[in-house]
Design goal:
Blueprint: H1 8-16, E1 21-29, E2 42-51, H2 55-73, E3 87-90, H3 91-99, H4 110-116, H5 128-145, E4 149-156, E5 165-166, E6 169-177, E7 180-187, H6 192-208, H7 218-227, E8 231-237, H8 238-245
Parallel strand pairs: 3-4
Antiparallel strand pairs: 1-2, 2-8, 4-6, 5-6, 6-7, 7-8
Helix pairs in contact: 1-7, 3-5
């Protein structure tokens, strides 16, 4: 049995049974060495889905929610200065502006061009996906810090996960507050055949890296076969959101017992 990393599959099953709006606020678990200033193995996730809306509408919902949470905290506790309107920038625009690189999905030459541009973390034998995330971490995310609140959208199709792909673009966004990613949103994939292909591809890659294969969830695929409605969904790290809003430099002040065993072992915020 497994502790869940997200309530996503169960919420989508509820959508397939006819619910038009679903949400869940509760604990999730990630145990891949994710213990750092803004990572913790056990955290609180707010996840919600709505039928019949576009990603643009979900951005508006998310922005409204963040402002609502800040207002509920009050000016004495919510010290992070939220702008009235959040910036929106595509991944292609971000690569061009902050890394001086043209982003072409699957481009085998990205590694060479990144090294020529002086991006230190990229190595000669990195594949496209590895180079993509290294550039994102080294160049893009630090630049987003200066924008305050920004939606980064329009990911390459290869990074779709369970998002819909239109042309060469995956319909997903992430929201960064003060340079910290606080949520990950998709225009949800509803094609059961494509979803199976992506799960199986991920499973093969996990096996190639020596990781345990996670078994497929038959109830989830049965829900897709029955028909998941066109919808958008968002997964928001609630601890991170609170931490950023109160001006913390890590999750220490919003997750109880974080500095106690076993979490403190090897932990360097």
């Amino acid at each position: 049995m497994f502790l869940r990393s997200s309530p996503e599959l169960h919420l989508k099953q509820a959508m397939a049974q006819g619910l038009g709006k679903v949400w869940h606020l509760g604990k999730c678990f990630r145990n891949q060495g994710e213990l750092a200033a803004w990572h913790h193995p056990e955290f609180t996730m707010l996840e919600w889905y709505q039928k019949g809306i576009e990603l643009e509408h979900l951005m508006e919902q998310t922005e409204e929610l963040i402002h609502h949470v800040a207002a509920a905290l009050g000016p004495d506790r919510a010290v992070f200065a939220l702008p009235k309107h959040f910036t929106r920038i595509s991944m292609t625009e971000a690569f061009k502006e902050f890394a001086q690189l043209d982003l072409v999905d699957g481009d085998a030459g990205l590694t060479r061009r990144a090294k020529d541009a002086g991006i230190q973390s990229v190595k000669a034998d990195d594949d496209f996906e590895t180079a993509f995330f290294k550039i994102l971490i080294e160049k893009i995310e630090p630049a987003l810090h200066h924008l305050g609140a920004v939606f980064l959208h329009g990911y390459p199709a290869s990074q779709a996960a369970l998002a819909t792909v239109r042309g060469t673009i995956a319909e997903r966004f992430e929201l960064y507050l003060d340079g910290i990613e606080v949520c990950n949103a998709f225009h949800e994939l509803t094609d059961a055949t494509e979803a199976r292909r992506r799960f199986q591809d991920t499973s093969r890659r996990r096996a190639a890296l020596g990781a345990v294969r996670v078994p497929e969830d038959p109830e989830f695929f049965a829900a897709l076969d029955a028909g998941l409605p066109q919808s958008c969904g968002n997964a928001l790290g609630f601890d991170r959101l609170l931490g950023v809003l109160i001006g913390a430099t890590s999750m220490d002040s919003v997750i109880p017992f974080r500095t106690m065993a076993p979490y403190h072992l090897g932990y360097h915020p």
